[in-house]
Design goal:
mainly alpha, two-stranded antiparallel ribbon, 56% helix, globular
């Protein structure tokens, strides 16, 4: 075989190898994008009343919160939670207190159990939403706070 012919063959192989490497590199770079297209990959699962099989209402929110509380060793009863919710927000998960000393200081009480943001963040329970207006997250964080401060939400009979 003449020398010129031998020279072309490796050149073709080099070109094919370069194309293969470039194609593999592009595929590797695309994998993170392909892997995160599903909603489950992009968003962690958050416990809600519906995800636990309860109705999306006050009864369901309390029952879902009690289930999360039991899994995390947080004491409290349905009656204690219900009583405090009615006093604090009348069952409105979007209630906000914009008139008391907390509000004047820039941290209004929010949600079913009227929790201020620093308390909500400090007593947030893993697996629940980070939104203080989320009913299950609000109840669970407030009950976690009440358990640490008063032994249980059942021991709270007034503003806390």
């Amino acid at each position: 075989m003449p020398a010129a012919a031998q020279h072309r063959r490796p050149h073709r192989h080099r070109l094919a190898r370069k194309l293969a490497v470039l194609g593999t590199g592009a595929a590797v770079l695309a994998l993170p994008l392909i892997g995160t297209t599903g909603a489950a990959a992009a968003t962690p699962t958050v416990t809600t009343a519906a995800s636990l099989g309860y109705a999306d209402n006050l009864d369901g929110w309390i029952r879902a919160s009690l289930q999360v509380m039991a899994q995390n060793g947080i004491p409290g009863s349905y009656d204690g939670i219900y009583r405090n919710i009615l006093r604090e927000s009348s069952g409105n998960p979007y209630a906000i207190n914009d008139w008391d000393s907390n509000a004047a200081a820039g941290t209004p009480s929010k949600g079913l159990l009227q929790v201020i943001d620093p308390t909500f963040q400090a007593y947030h329970v893993s697996g629940t939403s980070y939104d203080p207006y989320d009913p299950v997250a609000n109840i669970t964080a407030a009950c976690n706070y009440a358990a640490q401060r008063y032994g249980s939400i059942d021991n709270v009979w007034g503003a806390y």
